[in-house]
Write a structure and sequence with these properties.
The protein is an alpha/beta fold. It contains 2 helices and 6 strands.
């Protein structure tokens, strides 16, 4: 599977995804701005084997990110914790999301 970190309005990402799918390759558009309101990211570090990595959009089935063999860091958007209104807590929340994303790449 090929993962593309971008957003749905990115015409380049959309075109590349179309070509990948036409070639029979699974492709995933990972829009970080969907986090945490419209999507979730699960990283479960287990004592045995590699960590469990899942991405799930609201109403969708979880996607095993361990199946992503190639990632294109195209146009990442910032996570958008819209429910957090306090500026200090929002900054803390955004930093925690950034750390989660960094942990995903590792």
């Amino acid at each position: 599977m090929v993962g593309i970190v971008s957003h749905p309005e990115d015409p380049h990402a959309e075109r590349v995804m179309g070509h990948l799918r036409a070639a029979g390759q699974d492709a995933l558009l990972l829009d970080l701005s969907d986090l945490p309101d419209r999507a979730t990211l699960t990283i479960d570090y287990r004592p045995e084997g590699p960590p469990l990595l899942e991405y799930s959009r609201t109403g969708g089935s979880p996607i095993d990110l361990a199946k992503v063999g190639t990632m294109w860091w195209r146009r990442p958007q910032q996570a958008s914790p819209s429910a957090v209104t306090d500026p200090d807590i929002r900054l803390f929340t955004l930093n925690e999301w950034q750390e989660a994303i960094n942990g995903l790449w590792q």
